[in-house]
Amino acid sequence: MQALRAARARLRAHREARRAWIDARPVVKTSLAVLFWLPLAACVSQYGFTVKAVYGRSMQPTLNPDDSPWRDVVLFDRFSVAYARRYERGDVVALKSPVDSKLVVKRIVALEGDVVKTLPPYPHAEVCVPQGHAWVEGDEPFRTEDSNRYGPVSLGLIKSRLAFILWPWNRMGPLGQPLAADADLRTGTPGWRRSQADRERAEWRASRVQVTPPQSPSVDNRTVHAWTAETRHAT
Q1: Structural domain includes residue 64
Q2: Each residue's pLDDT tens digit, 173-213
Q3: Active-site residue flag, 160
């Protein structure tokens, strides 16, 4: 029994000496803390959430509006895409461009099985989105390269969902579905006008999509694949 107590005392003394040695060396203490938390931070960033600034004007006025002097800083949700595989119409997502593999930000307009009315320069007035694909567009149609140029995109290219605007503080809030007009906003105020414009854009996008159950590839889908392949080859 005494031998066990002596061993515990020596172990306690060793721990205290090691702790004192580390506390006396701030650089070593900071390095050990970084080594301890770095794998967790990398895991969270890769499979959970990350914070990034958004560049470009293709998602105006939802992101980086002209009246803001700042670039939007947004919370990117990787978990809902990597594990939950949750895709919804209206979601703002980050995906790899099928043309040059650059990371771009677009909005999901239609999902597999949906029939969407396209915009120029797409060569067909309507198209049925193939299985495992989505139709994505920028909110600013004159400053975006999206599915109306390269066709439906594979869901595998979608890397994350933009969940929340963190900065600037006056535009802080959730992304995705249209903003609801705050009950405190008076009719005609700038905030009220923004919420109404956001709702009208969402209604216009929805009016172009006929939501249908998933279906097997059709002649339209084969045309989509052929045209998309031809476009990528030409690019």
Answers
A1: yes
A2: 888 655 444 444 566 677 677 778 888 888 999 999 999 76
A3: no
Catalytic residue, from 52, 80, 101, 106: name it: 106
* 29 catalytic residue (yes or no): no
- CA 175 – CA 162 distance, rounded (Å): 6
CA distances from 137 to 90, 106, 107, 205 (A): 10, 5, 5, 10
| Catalytic annotation, pick one of 45, 52, 58, 117 | 58
pTM: 0.71
Q: Say which CATH number the domain at 67 has.
A: 2.10.109.10
Residue 108 belongs to domain spanning:
49-234
How many Å apart are CA 89 and CA 135, to the nearest integer? 9
The dihedral of CA 181, 191, 208, 60: what is its sign?
negative
Task: Give the 3-state secondary structure of residue 178.
Answer: coil
* C-alpha to C-alpha distance for 44 and 38, rounded to whole angstroms: 10
Write the DSSP symbol of residue 20: H
- Domain presence at residue 11: no
Instruction: Name the domain count of the chain.
Output: 1
| Alpha-carbon 209 to chain mean position | 22
